[in-house]
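Format notes (please read before filing issues)

Several people have asked whether sequences and structure tokens are stored in separate files. They are not. Every record keeps both together, in the order shown below: the sequence lines, then the token lines. Line labels are part of the format and must not be stripped during preprocessing.
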Amino acid sequence: VDAVLTLDIDPRYHFSSASVTPSSINGQTVSWNMQDLEPMEWNSLLYVQLEPDVTAVIDEIACSTVSLGPLDDDLNPANNTFTFCDTIRSSWDPNDKHVQPGGALAPGMELTYTINFENLGNDTAFNVVIRDTISGNLDAGTFKLITSSHPVTVSQQYHNDQKILTFTFPDIQLGDRNQPHTNKGFVTYTFTAKSTIIPGDEINNTAYIYFDNNPAVVTNTVLSKYPDPNAITQVERDEAIKVFPNPASDELFIVWEQGQEVHEVVVLNLLGQVIQKQAIKGRQTRIPISSLTSGIYYLKLSGSTSTQTVKFIKN
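Then the structure lines:
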């Protein structure tokens, strides 16, 4: 069958380049025509480079969505769409790790981890090994390998009562830094959080990447935390400031009466992490929230003399 691969880019990014020339670029939507797809076909990888917009704010979360369609005879169309989120950072290490969903953790939640690696040396990397220490708050028996950029073998062992996951890419022949389309790889896998975790429990995860016999390249640490309901205290809301609708799907509207001052609105997740930030003027504003995943969030409304926090639900 023929299909179209579409990437809807978060407005905090803009499209820079891709290893395969897009069929079309329309604003934040980039598409590729995929022809003659066979059942169970593993197609060649497509690398896309996105650049943060000049208006992006450090620690904001940007979410983009990739989808494949239309496939009229697909028995499981639900798995043809995937949304991935990044935290805007001031610098970027190509050897990194991220987790979906990001932010708040819940008992029994499935967490999807992706480890990206890139050979920045000046010669081919023949073997790549990734070692990952698994948190005791993850159910070790729920591990599932989802996909990888190259053939990989997985082994598990214990060291000092900690579970170590090892991904081995033998004879990977990863290009050097002068070959940007062949010097990258990744592995994606899932674990389920234990059903016994309690508020305040955390899952910290860091990967160690070995290129041949070189010392380990250490990734960033990703954090998932079961929120303590008292971690963010909701201040009694001034009725002169109205936030609606609540719950909301696409936008929140904030209106305040004469004499009230609101200079900045910050959206926080349940961990207190900044999701987005917006300076405002006047006596009303709208806050786009369509890119947020469903859940509970907080609006922090800051004025010259006071700050208020209001809880809202994203459908």
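For reference, the curators noted about this record: DSSP finds no helices and 26 strands in the chain. The chain has a mean pLDDT of 84.
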